[in-house]
């Protein structure tokens, strides 16, 4: 009988003499059962590689990262336990999100002369997302596998239904001609207020400097915090003892700084929005109206997205996307923005899991490489289809399809593993 849930050898030193005494996907190495090397590959591993390539196209086009799909592949075909599979899925998502975000950086908004990626949304989302990611990684390490699968199933079921409703609503609006906006032309801007002209000029930039500085600063702060804090298997660069009082103090300081940055970004966006209104700025009908309520909703969704994403390996975009769709953001802007966001959060999660000793690097790089290629193909294909049919609701449909496949797959796998496998029901010690 195959065992999809592999006991953590760090805590249970299972001894062996022959490979046949180990679980499927393991070999006997110096008296202990370790996961087999990537090569030579089994038939299921070849199939899983093809599926990662195919599904990364779907994930790149929909902007969700594809984490949950990768988790399932790494569990059922590469024979990793759910906790390690989550860590490997983060590595794979780096490939998916890097390609998708790099391509979309140069795409323009469908109705305004500005980038397709909404860097304002990223600026306010990135800090709470990384706070949630930090806590999610800790929960993943300590949680039993059945709990990870249960949370994953519940989250996917809700998000799938929510996205299907959004897709239907957007499709109806397109059919009624309610999603069309007039493009602001450059030759009109000469007659505008100089302050308003300056706003339009700044928005034309491919990479807005202020937003990029905020994003990179938060990113570097998070990486620095991970390297300074260390883990069970990675010694702190500052010599800090893992789980000591200094460790928890620095972690609290890191979270506090990110909270302050979130508050500062909220005030900046509200002020920026009010200034635009006062100058008579021509908003797109799908632009976010920044106020205290929208800032709180988006920040909170970012926190829970980061935590759930890191806990179960789904990628924060799965949680954030339905929230942003409900607010009214354009699907094209949504997928571009979340792809860019996923790249930062998945690299942070990957580093944290790598530091924690949870990542089989060769398998992680293998998945990353095929996700890079597949994602690029998916982005170009869906862009061509949307432009041909003039229906951006197709993007939401692709997102709903990806979520639906993920939900059905994880439910089937969860039932099968519960009935036929020996599962680990206990919590694990973080320290």
TrEMBL record:
The keyword Membrane applies. Residues 1-18 form the signal peptide. It is found in: Membrane. InterPro entries: TM_pro_TauE-like. Its main location: membrane. One of its GO terms (cellular component) is Cul4A-RING E3 ubiquitin ligase complex. Keywords: Membrane, Signal, Transmembrane, Transmembrane helix. GO terms for biological process: protein ubiquitination. The chain crosses the membrane at residues 46-75, 87-107, 119-139, 145-165, 212-234, 246-266, 296-321, 333-354, 361-382, 394-415. It is a multi-pass membrane protein. This is Membrane transporter protein. It comes from Stentor coeruleus.
């Amino acid at each position: 009988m195959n065992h999809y849930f592999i006991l953590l050898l760090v805590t249970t030193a299972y001894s062996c003499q022959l490979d046949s005494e180990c679980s499927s996907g393991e070999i006997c190495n110096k008296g202990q059962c370790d996961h087999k090397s990537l090569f030579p590959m089994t038939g299921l591993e070849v199939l899983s590689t093809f599926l990662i390539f195919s599904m990364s196209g779907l994930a790149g086009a929909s902007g969700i990262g594809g984490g949950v799909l990768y988790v399932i592949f790494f569990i059922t075909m590469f024979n990793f336990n759910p906790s390690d599979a989550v860590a490997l899925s983060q590595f794979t998502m780096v490939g998916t999100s890097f390609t998708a975000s790099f391509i979309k950086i140069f795409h323009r908004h469908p109705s305004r002369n500005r980038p397709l990626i909404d860097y304002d949304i990223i600026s306010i989302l990135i800090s709470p997302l990384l706070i949630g990611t930090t806590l999610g990684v800790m929960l993943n390490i300590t949680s039993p596998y059945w709990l990870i699968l249960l949370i994953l199933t519940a989250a996917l079921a809700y998000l799938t239904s929510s996205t299907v409703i959004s897709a239907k609503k957007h499709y109806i609006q397109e059919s009624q001609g309610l999603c069309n906006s007039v493009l602001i032309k450059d030759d009109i801007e000469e007659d505008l207020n100089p302050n308003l002209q300056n706003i339009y000029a700044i928005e034309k930039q491919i990479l807005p400097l202020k937003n990029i500085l905020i994003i990179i600063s938060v990113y570097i702060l998070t990486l620095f915090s991970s390297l300074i804090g260390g883990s069970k298997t990675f010694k702190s660069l500052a010599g800090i003892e893992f789980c000591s009082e200094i460790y928890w103090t620095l972690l609290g300081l890191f979270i506090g700084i990110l909270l302050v940055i979130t508050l500062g970004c909220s005030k900046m966006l509200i002020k920026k929005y009010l200034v635009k209104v006062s100058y008579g700025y021509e908003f797109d009908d799908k632009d976010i109206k920044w106020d205290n309520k929208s800032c709180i909703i988006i920040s909170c969704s970012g926190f829970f997205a980061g935590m759930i994403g890191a806990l179960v390996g789904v990628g924060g975009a799965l949680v954030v996307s339905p929230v942003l769709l409900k607010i009214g953001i354009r699907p094209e802007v949504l997928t571009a923005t979340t792809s860019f966001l996923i790249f930062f959060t998945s690299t942070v999660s990957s580093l944290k899991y790598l530091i924690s000793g949870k990542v089989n690097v060769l398998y992680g790089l293998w998945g990353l490489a095929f996700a890079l290629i597949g994602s690029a193909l998916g982005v170009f294909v869906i862009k061509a289809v949307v432009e041909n049919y003039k229906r951006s609701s197709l993007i939401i449909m692709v997102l709903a399809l990806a979520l639906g496949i993920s939900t059905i797959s994880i439910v089937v796998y969860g039932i099968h593993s519960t009935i036929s496998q020996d599962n680990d029901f206990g919590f694990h010690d973080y320290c």
